[in-house]
Design brief:
118 residues; 4 helices; 85% helix
C-alpha cells in the first residue's frame, strides 16, 4: 500500500493516542511514559505537515529532520514499554514496525532533498 507520508504519520499518531489513552488509565510509570510517547508520537505527523508548507527547501528539510528525530524518540519509548513489560511485545509489534519504517522514509526524504540541492 503506497500511502502518502502525511496520511501515514497521521494514522500513526491516531494509534499512538489510543495506546496512550490506555496507558493513562494506570498510575505511576505507565502514565508518565504515556505523556512522553504522546508528545513524540504525535509530533512526527505535525512536523511532516509543517514541512509541506515549508517556506524553502531548507525549511522543508529542517521540518522533516525534526520529524525524524521525533520518530526515533517514539521508537525508543515503544521499545522501553516492551522491555519493561508495561505493554506486551505482540501488542506493540505493528507500532514498532511502523515507527521503524517512518524513520527510514523520513531519512530517505531528507537525503533525497539534500542530494537534489547539489
Amino acid at each position: 500500500m503506497n500511502q502518502d507520508i502525511t496520511e501515514r504519520t497521521f494514522d500513526f499518531a491516531v494509534r499512538i493516542v489510543r495506546l496512550c489513552q490506555s496507558l493513562e488509565e494506570n498510575p505511576g510509570v505507565p502514565r508518565t511514559l504515556a505523556q512522553q510517547l504522546l508528545r513524540s508520537g504525535t509530533s512526527i505527523g505535525a512536523n511532516v505537515e509543517e514541512a509541506r508548507a515549508g517556506q524553502s527547501k531548507a525549511d522543508f528539510i529542517h521540518k522533516n529532520a525534526i520529524a525524524l528525530k521525533e520518530a526515533r524518540e517514539t521508537h525508543y519509548w515503544l521499545r522501553l514499554l516492551v522491555v519493561t513489560e508495561i505493554v506486551s511485545q505482540n501488542k506493540l509489534d505493528k507500532l514498532l514496525q511502523e515507527s521503524e519504517e517512518l524513520k527510514r522514509i523520513l531519512g530517505a526524504i531528507i537525503v533525497s532533498c539534500k542530494t537534489s540541492e547539489k
